[in-house]
Specification:
about 15% strand, about 70% helix, 5 helices, alpha+beta, Arc Repressor Mutant, subunit A, about 100 residues, single chain
């Protein structure tokens, strides 16, 4: 699922949509108006965000309400955090090695 979130966030417009929805629920029309792109363009990007589980849609008659699903992003965030911790450990080991090497001189 984290891979889906990364794919969904790969495009700047989709990141902007996610940022917009982080402020709360919005209709498709509101999102379309916010970004000044065509409805078909927004629809394509929303479809990918929905397929990745990043955005949910509730249909009420002709109104489509969009909401951010933060739990989908938390998987990606958890993966990033695990990589950050891994790299910090590796950098610490390199630092220790270089200190030991310097002390031997």
């Amino acid at each position: 699922m984290a891979n889906d979130a990364f794919k969904a966030l790969a495009h700047p417009l989709r990141r902007d949509i996610v940022e917009r929805l982080s402020g709360g629920v919005a209709t498709v029309g509101e999102v379309t108006g916010d970004f000044g792109v065509s409805k078909p363009t927004i629809s394509r990007h929303l479809k990918l965000l929905e397929e990745a589980g990043v955005v949910s849609r509730v249909i009420d008659g002709r109104t489509h309400r969009l909401a951010l699903r933060p739990e989908a992003l938390s998987e990606a965030s958890d993966w990033i955090e695990s990589q950050r911790e891994r790299w910090e450990r590796l950098f610490d080991l390199v630092g220790e090695y270089l200190e030991e090497r310097e002390e031997r001189r």
